[in-house]
Amino acid sequence: MIEHTLFRLERLISTLPSQIDQLSEDDFTTKKAAGSWSKKEILGHLIDSASNNHHRFIKAQYEDRPLISYDQDKWVDENDYQSANKQDLIVFWLALNKHLLRLLQNMPPQKLAKTCRLPNDLQVNLSDLFIDYVDHLEHHVAQLIRN
């Protein structure tokens, strides 16, 4: 299952930046409804997700069941992705995900079984957390590239 998930992440890394780059600035920055995120903010959310999951993937290898959580709406607001440069966001997302891919490709199988706590006190192993990360990424990618 991990091999397939690594493949899925590799595919996103190789295709998503050009797909986002093709979006018009208007499509990328327009909010479809009051209180919703623009596609630019969705990409920012994916950057936050990568950053927070990076912490989980590292800390769970050497700490006993670390708890790492974040308020996704506050992170998007505080990072002010809506006013960020499109290319900067693409490059940042790409660098984070290339790093996560390398990290998971090199992680020994016994470390993939280590656990991490989520805010609801649910305990998940790193393997399942990685699969969930890519599932979450694909969910939001569908929002980014649909017309």
TrEMBL record:
Superkingdom, natural source: Bacteria
Output the InterPro entries linked to this UniProt entry: DinB-like, DinB/YfiT-like
* Residue span, DinB-like domain: 9-144
State one Pfam family annotation. Answer: DinB_2
Could you tell me which SUPFAM superfamilies the record lists for this protein?
DinB/YfiT-like putative metalloenzymes (SSF109854)
Known Gene3D superfamilies for this protein?
A: dinb family like domain (1.20.120.450)
Protein name (Swiss-Prot/TrEMBL): DinB family protein
Taxonomic placement: Bacteria, Pseudomonadati, Bacteroidota, Sphingobacteriia, Sphingobacteriales
